[in-house]
Design goal:
The chain is mainly alpha-helical. It is about 75% helix and about 0% strand. Helix 2 crosses helix 10, helix 3 runs parallel beside helix 6 and helix 3 runs antiparallel to helix 8. The longest helix has about 35 residues. The chain starts with 7 loop residues before the first helix and ends in a 10-residue tail after the last helix.
Length: about 250
């Protein structure tokens, strides 16, 4: 039952959507029926265009997340633990964080160009700050009494980190992972519609030029499915590593 209920509304929307177009209530040219979108997806799949562009988008998204999320995590840990790092870097990071990263697109194109590095860089910047903020907050929120207790029991600095600080900060870090995954797709959508020749965003942009609404909506649905998959992975990580934290739900 728990696996069925979340899909009732999405399936209901698709059924109603199909009925509205089939009954002629809405124009099939402006709002293609789900069946037409599936046919369009099958044609693109047979030509190889769909899987090629999906693969390119996934590569950009994952590489950008790994680079940006990794940098954000490392900076969050260093600034959270070491006062010298915090004084040196945190103020600058906070200033940069308040600059909308999508506003950097013209500058990135001028400096890096319109190739793959610019798109991956933009996704990396978008993922870095959520990971940094949540990691930093998680590390600095650890009860100092627990750290002192660990030291009194003879734990080394590395043992204190892996046995006390990291486990305590993990819930907030994983929250940063979930947020960064969402920002990853939002950033990629914009990056792939600006001066690019491949990817899901490029497919949508090209379809818009020819008023191909089926492909436009297909691309939107693909992004939505990837967003759902990312959220599922983030939740799976939380359920796996934070099983001790899950409260008993009231049925």
């Amino acid at each position: 039952m728990d696996k069925v209920v979340p899909w009732i509304i999405p399936v209901g929307i698709i059924v109603i959507w199909q009925f509205i177009v089939t009954a002629g209530i809405a124009s099939g040219k402006l709002l293609p029926a789900p069946s037409d979108i599936l046919l369009d997806a099958w044609k693109l799949f047979k030509s190889g265009e769909l899987q090629k562009n999906i693969g390119i988008s996934l590569f950009r998204a994952l590489l950008g997340f790994i680079i940006g999320g990794g940098i954000g995590f490392i900076l969050g840990v260093l600034n959270g633990i070491f006062k010298v790092c915090r004084l040196a870097f945190d103020n600058t990071i906070q200033m940069l964080r308040n600059i909308p990263h999508l506003a950097l697109i013209p500058l990135i194109i001028l400096v890096i160009g319109i190739g793959e590095p610019s798109k991956i860089f933009l996704v990396s910047v978008g993922c870095m700050f959520p990971m940094y903020i949540n990691t930093y907050h998680g590390v600095t929120s650890i009860d100092k009494g627990l750290v002192e207790m660990g030291r009194s029991y003879g734990l080394s600095n590395s043992q204190v980190f892996f046995k006390i600080i990291f486990p305590g900060a993990l819930p907030t870090i994983l929250m940063g992972v979930r947020y960064a995954l969402g920002v990853m797709w939002t950033t990629l959508i914009v990056a792939e519609t600006v001066a690019t020749s491949s990817g899901i965003g490029y497919m949508a942009n090209e379809a818009e030029q020819f008023t191909d609404m089926s492909t436009v909506i297909l691309c939107i649905l693909i992004y939505a499915l990837f967003g759902k998959l990312s959220d599922f992975i983030a939740k799976l990580l939380e359920d796996t590593f934070l099983v001790w934290q899950n409260p008993r739900e009231i049925s």
